[in-house]
Amino acid sequence: MKTIIIAEVGVNHNGCLKNAFQLIKEAKSCGADFVKFQIFKSENLVDENAEKAPYQKRNMSEESDSQFEMLKKLELSFEDFVEIKQECEKNKVKFMASAFDLESLNFLLNLNCDYVKIPSGEINNVPYLREFRNCNSKIILSTGMSTIDDIEFALEILTSAGIDKKSISLLHCTSNYPCDLEEINMNSMVTIREKFGVDVGYSDHSSDNAVSSAAVAMGASIIEKHFTLDNELEGPDHKASLNTKDFKKFVRSIRKIEKILGSSTKKPTDSEKETKKFVEKKIFASKQILKGEKFSNLNMTTKRSKSGINSRDWDLVCSKEAIKDFQVGDLIEIE
């Protein structure tokens, strides 16, 4: 099964529609399946006195600690997102977004996207989750900063609002930008899949491509990775994102893992079938066998040969008597 790869632009357009369009083109050239954005109204999202999160302070050089001021600079209008979705369609890459307030969520739900993503920070937001009663899209629920109980709570709210559980995918992630390898705990993605019986994926905030490759090998059907035009740009997420060159390598590594994984069916490949002809053992006489003598371990052996009775039929041959005389090294024949 092909892994869905999401290029998470988020706010890496820095509030500029031109940058958003360029990111769409670049993401498409990298092989991304979806380009994802974050939709919000700053005044609905944070209190004007709210401080930046620690990772936002760490990743930005501007002196102001105001989260509101930061977000206001990164905000795009609803009209902008209509154009962004059209630009995705023009570039033949799919649009996806997450909304961070109810007004933005209702706008997003009316865009009729294939998928809508619920951010990790909204996993316990009851009125937000209940708004999905109007959702006709598939849902991706991000589970950063959460426990199994938190996930179960969110799923109960969504399903009680009329959402089919089968239309929900759960994304494991670590909400640190970038996160250390010791924080990833990929085995919990498997726990989530086994516990809730839905498709799972991984939202990768690490700085190592091996992490998402491991996630795919462990059953992730969706991979999300932050994407930027330039890691040196000012903004909260650029440093934890991949630029165009690195995102291309990232996509190639995931597609390589898919080839390695293959299918769940155990069968010989075409090349193995050819090799098998030369290494399979057939049954030979190890000493002289006279007509009417019973075949046994005492008068037969196996050797590689392109013709003859396959060694897997050894017990069948041992139940038979020789139909003629055999000399040492002769291929055994039976009726």
Automatic annotation (TrEMBL):
Gene Ontology annotations of biological process type: carbohydrate biosynthetic process
Keywords: Transferase
UniProt-listed Enzyme Commission number(s): 2.5.1.56
Transmembrane segments: none
Residue ranges constituting the PseI/NeuA/B-like domain according to the UniProt record: 23-265
Enzyme class: transferase
Protein name per the record: N-acetylneuraminate synthase
The encoding gene: neuB
